[in-house]
Amino acid sequence: MGRTAGENGLRWINDPRTDTFTLTLAEGLTPYELLRAVGAEEHRIIALTRFAAWELLYRSEDHHISDLEWLDWEDDAAVARLTDAGFLPTPPDMIVRAGAVDGWAYALEENHGLTGLHIAQLSERGRAFVVHRNAKGFTRVDYGLHGRAVSTFEPGLPHLFNGVPPEEALGFVHRGGESATTGFLRFLEDELGLYIPWEETETELPAAAFDDPDRRTP
Questions:
Q1: pLDDT digits (tens, 9 = 90+) for 44-56
Q2: Which terminus has fewer CB within 10 Å in the chain: N or C?
Q3: What is the 3-state secondary structure (H, E, C) of the chain?
Q4: What is the mean pLDDT of residues 110-116?
């Protein structure tokens, strides 16, 4: 699945019609290892399409599960698997779906940025990147290498960083001409040679449900 010249290998993820996204790349990991690195338990990982994950994430708890278009709600075994995995009956705060491409595991989140909290674990076998854009248009990049967090920065604001400056850690400098987020995704395309087909991300991928670590019970 290596990217060939002219292909939009990662930049499509920064779709202006989408308020938020989180892209995670972890070198040398499998999708299941990526999910375990961010806190998932093996027996709670199940395969979901992007549409199924979206419906589970944004459904109202008051609505009957028969409203889920893709689920046979009378299939007791299927409902039990989703319940045991934390997707039902209460909608999870976050869902992370993971796939694999050319020696890397990748993950996509519809919202939040859970994986960025685990950048050291994600980089256990090499490099790891987490690119998170929030609803306000702010983008955060976390970079880890060989089991340690190296740098956290805003691609368009080089003075906003923690750890090693991005130009020193990665050789990345935003040159303008496009959004800083798109510019960094282009940089990753060129540096890593990765191409993640959007069609693949729509299909069933290993997925795990998570509670928001910032949520506090009164």
A1: 999 999 999 999 9
A2: C
A3: CCCCCCCCCCHHHCCCCCCCEEEEEEECCCHHHHHHHCCCCHHHCEEECHHHHHHHHHCCCCCCHHHCCCCCCCCHHHHHHHHHCCCCCCCCCEEEEEEEECCEEEEEECCCCHHHHHHHHHCCCCEEEEEEECCCCCEEEEEEECCEEEEEEECCEEEEEEECCHHHHCCCCCCCCCCHHHHHHHHHHHHHCCCCCHHHHHCCEEEEEECCCCCCCC
A4: 80
Question: 170-180, pLDDT tens digit by residue?
Answer: 999 988 889 99
Model pLDDT for residues 132-143, shown as the tens digit of each residue: 998 888 899 999
Query: Which amino acid is located at 183 in the chain?
Result: G
As to burial, measured by CB atoms within 10 angstroms (0-12 exposed, 13-18 middle, 19+ buried), residue 9 is buried
Close Cβ partners of 147 (under 8 Å, ≥ 6 residues apart): 120, 121, 123, 124
State the pTM of this model: 0.91
Per the CB < 8 A criterion, the answer to whether 92 and 210 are in contact is yes
